[in-house]
Amino acid sequence: MNLLFDFTVDKAAKTVFITREFDADLSLVWDAFTQAELLDQWVAPKPWTSKTKFMDFKVGGRRFYAMVSPEGHERWAIQQYISISPKTNFKLFNAFADKDENIELPGSDWDYTFKEQNGKTTVHMTIYNESLARMEKMIEMGFKEGFTMSLTNLENLLTTLSKRS
């Protein structure tokens, strides 16, 4: 099955645009992006894993989580939810942090939009970076490859979860 996937970097706008289609209904895809126990099953590119310390999915709430390497190295990040329109859109501010929740600026603004058509759900993600240098460094460190692997993890998780319902 060919599902839509687009990853575009606009350096002038300091923005990454990602569009990904999933063969799953909107409710399931929304849950996968908004529930800690599901996020931890797909967010990190293998062999890394995701570990959420806490998550409060509400406007003003935060998710504090780490990507953990096979050797046990942790890279922490904080996401603060800016707006939420259930099952259609949410926005968050994302920044790296230390293990004590001290934010490392600059960060980035993420805007997620969800739309279902004919049993398939498309997610549009816009990632605006406060700093062009930060965005370039993330891309240089393999953000596209890692995020693509994570989205493949999500596709596999959605397939498994769809079979259960």
Automatic annotation (TrEMBL):
Database matches in SUPFAM superfamilies: Bet v1-like
InterPro entries tied to this protein: ASHA1/2-like_C, START-like_dom_sf
Gene3D superfamilies, sorted: 3.30.530.20
Domain Activator of Hsp90 ATPase homologue 1/2-like C-terminal residue range list: 24-158
Superkingdom assignment: Bacteria
Family: Belongs to the AHA1 family.
The name this protein goes by in its record: SRPBCC domain-containing protein
Organism: Chitinophaga nivalis
